[in-house]
Design a protein that fits this description.
The chain is mainly α. It has ten helices and no strands. α1 packs across α4, α4 packs antiparallel against α5 and α8 packs antiparallel against α9.
């Protein structure tokens, strides 16, 4: 419940700080950064915060794929309104629930392994590194 309240606060009042773009550009390729930049302010902020948390994790910080996953895992959402996000939490939203598959489609011709990680970031019965990533993303 607290994590949902934090998400709502961030969505309504905070924006991704453009000063962080240089750090993001060091991790993502030019094509990947273009996709990152097309994400909503909230999703860029959320993804950057997940990226910072992944950098602190002793296992994932050494994995470039997971650093990139942190930044692009929600790129399949599109530019979603606050109300649609609330709807997804309360009753579900088919388009938002397809965001991992949409991310896969966006990334598969750029980095297939990253595309697969994005596609699988909400799946259950995953390997240990993905489970760690999911815990970070759920906080």
């Amino acid at each position: 419940m607290i994590s949902r309240l934090k998400q709502a606060f961030r969505c309504l009042f905070l924006k991704f700080d453009k000063k962080n773009e240089d750090e993001v550009k060091k991790i993502l390729s030019k094509d990947e950064f273009k996709i990152f930049n097309e994400m909503s302010d909230y999703d860029r902020l959320h993804s950057f915060l997940i990226y910072k948390a992944v950098q602190k994790n002793e296992i994932l910080k050494k994995e470039i794929g997971y650093l990139k996953l942190a930044l692009l895992h929600d790129c399949g959402k599109g530019n979603v309104t606050f109300y649609r996000r609330v709807k997804k939490v309360l009753v579900g939203d088919e388009m938002l629930e397809r965001h991992p598959q949409n991310a896969y489609q966006k990334l598969k011709d750029i980095d297939l392994e990253l595309a697969r990680l994005c596609r699988d970031h909400h799946k259950r019965n995953v390997e240990d590194k993905m489970r760690i990533f999911q815990q970070i993303d759920d906080e």
